[in-house]
Amino acid sequence: MSRVKAKPPRRRKAVSGADETTLTARAYRQLEELIVTLRLQPGTVLSEQALAHRLAIGRTPIREALQRLAHDGLVVIMPRRGVMVSEINIRTQLRLLEVRREVERLIARLAAARATADERLEFTGIADGMMAAARAEDDITFMRLDQRFNLLSAEAARNEFASRSMGLMHGLSRRFWYQHYKEVADLPRAARLHADVAMAIARGAEDDAAVASDRLIDYIAEFARRTLE
To answer: How many domains does the chain have?
Structure first.
């Protein structure tokens, strides 16, 4: 009688460094959107285990994503106490806009000069998408397009120092906008001003892109001050 050979135990597939990086990026994107859209409210104490369960991602990528979010100012890591979603502060926002105006103008000008043909085509698509989202009053789609617009502008500028500077400001700015836009924002106007910057970059019009960027920041500063009323 022949003997049946036992099958060797199945090995668990190891998570590669590349996979970890991908999972961390995914965790960062999802957590950033939850915080920016206030589904995770300011002052909320976060649990790595609960977030891992909610996003179906392991705790290590969650922990690394939280470190990135702390660098962005969206969460505060409290030694021996956990991680908390940072508070929203109007005075911090106004100081942030002082820096954002200068950096965004530079990025818009550089992007207009250095964007590739494919990037210029994507800028046109973002402009169209923002206008459509505003007409539909689709705030989530507008926010996602705004994030893509920011990332694409930084990529097209080909200046890592300007890109890093903007990376510290965009999440805080989008969250502040999302908190108050229903009361004081003019979504069609905001979409039009963003679209003006995107279209100037798409045309390669450096001066127009810089002027459009300043007009956009003028509106955002006006919006921020109106929240005090």
So the answer is: 2
